[in-house]
Amino acid sequence: MPKSDMPRIAILGAGPVGLEAGLYARTLNFPVAIFDRGQAGEYWQRWGHVRLFSPFAMNSTSLGRAAIKHSQLEHDLPADDAIITGREHHEAYLIPLSKVDALRGCIHVESQVVGVSRQGLLKEDHPGDPARAKKPFRILIREAKGRERIEEADVVLDCTGTYGQHRWLGDGGIPAIGEQAAEAQIAYTLEDVLGEKHKHYAGKNILVVGSGYSAATTVCNLAALAEKNPATWVIWLARAAVTQPIRRIPNDPLRERDRLAVRANNLATRTDGNVEFHAQCAVQQIEFQGHERGFRVQGTCAGRAKTWEVEQIIGNVGYSPDRMLYRELQVHECYASLGPMKLAASLLGQKTEDCLNVTLPGPDALRNPEPNFFVLGAKSFGRNSNFLLRTGFSQIRDVFTLITGNKNLDLYKRP
Ligand SMILES: Cc1cc2nc3c(=O)[nH]c(=O)nc-3n(C[C@H](O)[C@H](O)[C@H](O)COP(=O)(O)OP(=O)(O)OC[C@H]3O[C@@H](n4cnc5c(N)ncnc54)[C@H](O)[C@@H]3O)c2cc1C
User: Fold this and answer.
1) Structure confidence by residue, pLDDT tens digits, 98-115
2) Is the CB of 321 under 6 A from ligand 1?
3) Whose CA is nearest to atom 41 of ligand 1?
4) Residue of the nearest CA to atom 44 in ligand 1?
5) Residue 271 has what pLDDT?
6) 3-state secondary structure 37-106
């Protein structure tokens, strides 16, 4: 980005939060560059078959909707209360958002951010000193064909999410013995088992590990696959000592979330289906025996040794933020969640299991010891999975009060 009178803002990641932050910044006339290692809304294409829990109005902003209407007069947006899939949201909102007039020329796709530093300063130089802001950020970008270049910026918003970095299946969160060698054969994301991947799973013995909504989605979809192809068999492992893997939220206002919990728990507890559920499990060893023979998995269930022979493994055990991007900057991370410390401390204190009840502590919690470097979006929650898009939009509003110094600034406020 060429030097300018206004602070130059680099946004890492063109997911929903990166795109909305870019639009907010351009509306305020800041020079903006958004870098994504893939395409705009990249991860939404990958898990696009999943139905969202929250309605469209909660997943979009007034600014974004107005910009789309203004730029593409023919485009129809979903209804406010529409519960659509990730792919439908990507097509109906994220792609049009990436094409609005205000963002023209700002989005650089297939541009992976490899690292961010301060020109001439190392991590250990001038700890916590606001004077570090006198030097611009240096951002190393790697394009799809491998060409590398440096971009400069005065403010960096890291919106790179967590979906790109899976966690491991082994006991205590480190890889199980042999897991790293077998990594390429294991699916760690939300597989479209009823769509493009159905041949890969139909009629197979499948081990699913995890007990969150992702694992629940996968198991429900595999059970639907088993109805068409009864040879399909699912072994579902959870870590906790529970009879029902998914905790229901009383009077859940997000109906789709509750429906998923009920369906998954029914599958786990009924004895006549194609799903067998085991609680209190730990995976110790994974051996990939080749495409014909599949995997041999060893572990424990309620303290007793178990061995499973399966053809496929799906590990839906969560994701983790990529901290390598900012390892040369002064970011104070939470020892438990790996999110930025101030925000994490507030989240740790809230103890709610329902993402709808999460409250943000205000703009100051977004500050890092590194001046003008902010982590927003799903990545700001680290390993805490309670992030909602509407929380990300509040963060955008908060961060621009800090960047502009105008604490009353709110472009989302309805006139
Ligand atoms: C299956 C699923 C369902 C969900 N359903 C809901 C829901 O119903 N409602 C809700 O509010 N929230 C939901 N969420 C949670 C959350 O809103 C989403 O994860 C959302 O995508 C987070 O947006 P983001 O912009 O922070 O990050 P992401 O959408 O994860 O975007 C990050 C972007 O950064 C890019 N990137 C990553 N690394 C680099 C790099 N090194 N260099 C350049 N670019 C990089 C990626 O390609 C990606 O485009 C869901 C999440 C998942 C996984």
Assistant:
1) 999 999 999 999 999 999
2) no
3) 113
4) 36
5) 81
6) CCCCCHHHHHCCCCECCCCHHHHCCHHHHHHHHHHCCCCCCCCCCCCCEHHHHHHHHHHHHHCCHHHCCC
